[in-house]
């Protein structure tokens, strides 16, 4: 019997599969069918949703986020009380809060409230980072309040839950809310918390070392100018709240380089106007990203396009379709440099970011931005179509007064590839490639994605003193790198890149390219013992799979190869079901 079968049997023993007599239309995706007029919930879907919710809780627990557990069913009081005691969220004076709800929209000012047991508690002084609801039928008002504050919700949902409340839940867990299943969920949350509390304790020394290195950088002591401190993206604080995000974005301006032509791909015009995904261009993607941020938050993020002589006129024509957009777009033209022979030189056209900022300052744009309260500029390279405007990075830069930050990703050629993204490290600048095309990647450990965050006042200070050279980080008081996910580095340099981006492997969600590759995995395989993996063809992975050694999986043309749940594949070549 596989591990997956054992888990499913455990779910069935809790009666999690027994739904109500009427299943709402939107809930039918979670049902297996009906029996005696009663909806039968698909245990496989329950397990997938439960695992997804647990991974989300684990990620927040690792960041020491604030949780609120909401319950009004007295049958579950003891279960939830024991859980909150074990994970450190229990307080005798606050115990009643778990059952009476959150008063989320009034959380900015503590309120006294009286329960049916005539006891008085105080509401929380800060809104939680996550809301866990065990009985959605009785706490629909809390769900509405959490949705209004954009607080993620993890909740049990049943077959009769109205669509109005269901669509507001971030991580639904479809199941019958029996006492046994609630105990199972609380037990899972408890173990998740305890596991990550242990892992957090083991990384305290590393975090302390991080603080010491940051302090040394801030004080300017013993800093090697040829090295860059690279911070893993996973060590950044959790996403800021709505108010904080609005405050951060109002301090940001985005500049996109728009000087590259698509002639090497058979396209006559700016590279930013080539359609790459769902009929959208890379220029459309960045505009859509900013529009999505404007619709979610009350903020204003202007977009600057730095054109060249060869792209300026075509870009001005393209910008006509954005006349109804709520994005403030400014099209700038960088002065053209001449080679020694008097002819235009493509290599000299962009002699460095410093010349771009100098052009912005001479045009008066820099002073205007500073007068508008802008503090940071995100510079996006013309070749990278997956650049993302990330408030988490901006928050870290502002909080730590960092003037210069580049986004990097590890190269696949580095022997320490699996560890680079998980710990703080220093890298020599010679180990960071500026382009994945122009260099032999075996020489480098990191690749610059082309996304650069710079403090505007630092730029003005260096320009005023005539010392700006943007490629030399030694001119900035504080500089770091952030090791971002590989999904944020997608180049557009070759015809094959266009084919890949136009394929059904990628879709666009609010200006961000999203890969459908993850849909092929019920859950991520265990790869701690894996040396190499090569997958070709139409391959789908089940849950609880373990890969070890050197594994090759190749589906024949026209065949869908499904790797079953719970299997262990070690040093094998898989070409069909018979090889598993």
UniProtKB/TrEMBL annotation:
Q: Which PANTHER family match?
A: PTHR43511
Q: Which domain of life is it from?
A: Eukaryota
Q: Which organism is it from?
A: Prunus yedoensis var. nudiflora
The protein depicted here goes by the name UTP--glucose-1-phosphate uridylyltransferase
Q: Which UniProt keywords apply?
A: Nucleotidyltransferase, Ribonucleoprotein, Ribosomal protein, Transferase
Q: Which family does it belong to?
A: Belongs to the UDPGP type 1 family. Belongs to the universal ribosomal protein uS2 family.
- UniProt GO cellular component terms: ribonucleoprotein complex; ribosome
Q: InterPro entries of this UniProt entry?
A: Nucleotide-diphossugar_trans, Ribosomal_uS2, Ribosomal_uS2_CS, Ribosomal_uS2_flav_dom_sf, UDPGP_fam, UDPGP_trans
């Amino acid at each position: 019997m596989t591990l997956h079968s054992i888990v499913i049997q455990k779910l069935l023993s809790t009666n999690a599969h027994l739904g109500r007599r009427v299943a709402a239309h939107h809930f039918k995706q979670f049902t297996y069918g009906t029996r005696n007029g009663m909806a039968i919930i698909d245990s496989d879907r329950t397990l997938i949703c439960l695992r997804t919710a647990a991974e989300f809780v684990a990620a927040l627990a690792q960041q020491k986020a604030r949780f609120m557990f909401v319950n009004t069913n007295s049958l579950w009081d003891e279960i939830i009380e024991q859980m909150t005691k074990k994970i450190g969220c229990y307080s005798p004076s606050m115990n009643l809060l778990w059952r009476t709800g959150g008063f989320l929209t009034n959380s900015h000012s503590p309120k006294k409230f009286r329960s049916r047991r005539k006891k008085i508690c105080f509401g929380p002084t800060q809104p939680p980072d996550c809301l866990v609801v065990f009985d959605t039928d009785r706490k629909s008002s809390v769900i509405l309040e959490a949705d209004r504050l954009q607080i993620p919700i993890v909740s049990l949902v049943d077959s009769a839950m109205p669509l109005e409340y269901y669509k507001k839940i971030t991580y639904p867990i479809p199941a019958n809310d029996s006492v046994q299943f609630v105990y199972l969920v609380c037990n899972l949350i408890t173990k998740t918390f305890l596991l990550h509390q242990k892992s957090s304790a083991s990384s305290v020394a590393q975090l302390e070392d991080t603080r010491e290195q940051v302090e040394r950088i801030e004080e300017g002591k013993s800093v090697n100018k040829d090295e860059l401190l690279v911070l893993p993206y996973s060590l950044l604080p959790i996403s800021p709240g709505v108010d904080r995000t609005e405050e951060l974005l109002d301090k940001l301006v985005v500049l996109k380089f728009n000087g590259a032509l698509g002639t090497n791909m058979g396209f006559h015009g700016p590279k930013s106007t080539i359609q790459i995904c769902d009929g959208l261009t890379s220029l459309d993607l960045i505009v859509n990203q900013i529009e999505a941020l404007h619709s979610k938050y009350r903020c204003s993020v202007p977009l600057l396009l730095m054109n060249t002589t060869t792209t300026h006129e075509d870009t001005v024509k393209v910008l006509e379709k954005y006349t109804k957009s709520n994005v403030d777009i400014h099209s700038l033209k960088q002065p053209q440099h001449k080679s020694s022979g008097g002819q235009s030189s493509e290599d000299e056209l962009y002699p460095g970011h410093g010349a771009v900022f100098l052009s912005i300052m001479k045009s008066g744009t820099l002073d205007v931005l500073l007068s508008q309260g802008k503090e940071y500029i995100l510079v996006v390279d013309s070749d990278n179509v997956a650049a993302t405007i990330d408030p988490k990075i901006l928050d870290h830069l502002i909080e730590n007064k960092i003037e210069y930050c580049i986004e990097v990703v590890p190269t696949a050629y580095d022997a320490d590839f699996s560890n680079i993204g998980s710990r703080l490290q220093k890298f020599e600048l010679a180990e960071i490639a500026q382009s994945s095309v122009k260099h032999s990647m075996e020489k480098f450990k990191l690749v610059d994605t082309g996304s650069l965050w710079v403090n505007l006042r630092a730029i003005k200070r260096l320009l005023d003193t005539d010392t700006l050279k943007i490629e030399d980080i030694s001119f900035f008081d504080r500089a770091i790198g952030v090791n971002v996910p590989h999904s944020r580095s997608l180049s557009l340099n070759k015809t094959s890149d266009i084919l890949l981006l136009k394929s059904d492997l990628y879709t666009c969600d609010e200006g961000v390219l999203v890969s459908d590759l993850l849909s092929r995995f019920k859950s991520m395989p265990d790869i701690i013992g894996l040396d190499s993996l090569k997958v070709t063809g139409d391959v789908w992975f089940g849950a609880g799979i373990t890969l070890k050694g050197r594994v090759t999986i190749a589906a024949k043309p026209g065949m869908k190869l499904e790797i079953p749940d719970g299997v262990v594949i070690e040093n094998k070549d898989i070409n069909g079901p018979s090889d598993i």
